[in-house]
Amino acid sequence: MNSRQRVMAAIGHQEADRVPIDLNGMRSTGIMAIAYNRLKACMGLSDGETKVYDITQQLAEPANAVLERFGVDVLPLPRLPKGLSSVHSRWVPYTLPDNSQGLIPAELNLEHDSAGWLIRDSDGRILYRMPDGALYFDTVYHPLAQAESIAEIEAYELPLISDAELDWLGREAKRVSASGEKAIMGHTGINLYETAQRLRGWEQFMLDLGGNQAMAQALMEKLTENALQNLERYLGVVGQHVDILQMGDDLGTQNGPQISPKMYRRLIKPYHQRVFQFAKKTSNKPVFLHCCGSIYPLLPDLIEAGVDILNPVQIAAVGMDPASLKRDFGRDLVFWGGGADTQRVLPFASPEEVRAHVQKLIEIFAPGGGYVFCAVHNIQADVPPENIMAMYATAQLYGRYLEH
After folding, report:
1. Strands 74-77, 183-187: parallel, antiparallel or unpaired by DSSP?
2. Does the global pTM surpass 0.85?
3. Cross-strand partners of 400
């Protein structure tokens, strides 16, 4: 059984030879470059540079040697970051926040001022900032923050995926999927709710949802129409090459949903449902939703809207008990994640404690299929390399199904 067959069996709620494994299949199952540098040193890997392909989250592109060592079954087909002409662009030296070395794409407009690092767009606006001593870039530009009317919302121009990117995606999709050995995660770039928060600013969009719902609905409608157009273009080029359609929208906090189930059903779910169902009908591929936090009360609605695969399965959040999730939703959802707590265990536990933690979670999530192993969200900068190695070794050892 090859990797693709293993992943597709899991998505079909069947037990394969072992639980499939993911590292870097999408931008929330990856590893921060600081942790990756330490991991390479611990593994004795001296070949290759550390390419920081996601500058805002500081994520590294793992080498094939690492993916093979950890038994990874999934490869990404990413969208191009704005302003880049190729994922394999010209790379230039970059000093990480811990002073270790990496590379970043040369096209990034990365600068340093008295407040720290910043990234500008082609018009000179500051989009992201990372203060000195921090580990991530924060979004600081919200183009619709000052909009006061629906007309201003409707006049805002949202980008369509370009012909140049589609040409690149078509070539890249054929290259990545050529062997047929690995499952391919198609990054659609669709995040309706999060994009509304980014455009309006998180606080302002939440105020819209509570007190100016016509504005919120106008923005969600505009984003949905744009997403449907982009999906049609995207699927027309790569649909036959990808196995999974990845989307995202964080709806939870650590302690509960960001909005009530009632508000979700009225103001967000109809737009999710239109996009998810269009994607499934057009491609016949499963919809993967990255959705952080305590979202147990929203899961029935997400399933009804069309979600097939849930990530990151944030088991440290309130109400996200692994056994309850598997019992209550394991027939309808594939759990992609939840394999190790990145908040409280991976950074602080011993390798022995990590092994016991991972083994217990696999025993809960793996039976009957419907499970793909990875940590809860990206492996953070402070995670010891020994714990990363213990996590993946345990997944490979205890993820095997007995009948095989």
Report:
1. parallel
2. yes
3. 18
